[in-house]
Design a protein that fits this description.
Number of strands: 6
Strand content: 15-25%
Distance between the termini: 9 Å
Shape: globular
Number of helices: 7
Length: about 180
């Protein structure tokens, strides 16, 4: 049994990224894993202010928001799922905010199994061009293994992934952890 943290950076509740996260979570839960699905839009998370106060006070951010709870869940997780739509050839602002706010623990990001779930309105080329921020973050972990990548392409409209084979792929990926 593993602790799985899914960070969904989908701003749409019924968006393609969020829908795939829910399928992944369903598969993982059915195998008995502990799954926590965090939808960034549902949380109060401010932007990093680059004040470096966290570097002076044992990794505690001065912002009093939901990120402290998320960092606690992050540190307990064996598996991290980073899920984002692609906007203008990059990750969503919500995902970038999550990554930036891990700064207080950046020297202790730990070891994780990593999965990516990415949805885009265009083909896989746009996804490949957008992976820099995710890869850059993951490369700061003490040890990691990217165990799976799920790319939903040509899905601009919310919910377009429903009734497509990728739904089963998301479920199976979660189930096969």
């Amino acid at each position: 049994m593993k602790n799985i943290l899914i960070i969904s950076a989908s701003p749409r509740k019924n968006g393609n990224t969020q829908t795939l996260c829910e399928q992944f979570a369903k598969g993982a839960k059915e195998q008995g894993h502990i799954v926590k699905l965090i939808r960034i839009m549902d949380k109060n998370i401010g932007f990093c202010r680059a004040c470096d106060a966290c570097m002076k006070n044992s990794g505690k951010c001065i912002l009093k928001d939901d990120m402290a709870e998320i960092l606690d869940l992050y540190q307990k997780a064996d598996v991290l799922v980073l899920a984002t739509p692609v906007y203008f050839y990059g990750i969503s602002a919500q995902m970038k905010t999550f990554i930036d706010r891990t700064y207080p623990i950046w020297q202790h990001l730990g070891s994780k199994e990593i999965y990516y779930i990415i949805a885009a309105g265009l083909d896989e080329k746009i996804i490949n061009r957008s992976l820099g921020d995710l890869d850059g973050f993951v490369e700061h972990l003490e040890h990691y293994e990217i165990k799976g990548r799920l790319y939903a392409t040509n899905v601009m409209e919310a919910g377009k992934v429903k009734n497509q084979p990728i739904m089963r792929e998301a479920y199976q990926m979660g189930k096969n952890i």
